[in-house]
Amino acid sequence: MTALTATAITEPLPARPSRSLRYLRETGLLVGRSLQTIPRVPERLSDVTIQPIVFTLLFLYVFGSAIHIPGMRYQDYLLPGLVGQGLAFGVIGAGVATATDFTSGVIDRFRSLPVTRLSVITAQVLGQIIEQILGMVIIIGIGLALGWRPDLTIASGLELAGLILLGLTAFTWFGVLLGMIIRSSDGMQGLGFAIVFPLSFLAGTFVPISGMQTVPRVIGEWDPLSALVAAVRQVCQGTHSHGSWQLEHPVLAMIGWCVLITAVCVPLALRRFRSTTAA
Q1: SS3 assignment, position 208
Q2: What is the pLDDT of residues 179-192, one digit of tens each?
Q3: 71 partner at 20 to 30 Å CA-CA among 129, 139, 238, 263?
Q4: How many angstroms separate the CA atoms of 117 and 124, rounded?
């Protein structure tokens, strides 16, 4: 008995995983936890599932007959716009989810666990991006079923996928930052719709910017969401927009806006998260 006890005491403990390995493993576990909650709270996906379906059917079949786009079918004009709009609406979904996690005590429970703080916010961003990818798949699937015919090659398809991923990353970080600042899901939803909704209408999503009155046309020409919509439309349909530099170079403008948003929001979000969880 004495020999067994001595052997157990002197047996070396397993090596502690490196900090980077722990970060990756904990991030993966937290992303999995976020996705596993979806079946229990399916309404979380309403903004990326029901909303795109409503917009597509409403504008295609109610307003589509009254809107004529020279040189192209309305399906081919509308669906790229809805893809661009879906990227921007990621701000609202990410912000509401983040505010909910802070107010419901989820973040407080994570603070009591021996997990890397950075993995918590990284998992929040990755989980939201995965949910929004689902929304993109729904928009594209509905569009194809209703007659949208994008003119894509393998190269332009990869370009479109890269732009969508870049946009989702930028606007998700923006939404996470706003969610931590506002810390109210109702407030985040109201503020998000008040800002993103009108900007998406001014961005040429549903009708050409060139046909708008002077004031909304000028706003639309420099609206950041206009670059997203015009870039997706140019890649998918080969159409070219005019009116401002960002409309004439939409892909470059979209990359520039997304890089700028990410460069500003990531450090601010990390700083806000550290100060909040340290309190």
Answers
A1: coil
A2: 989 878 888 888 88
A3: 139
A4: 11
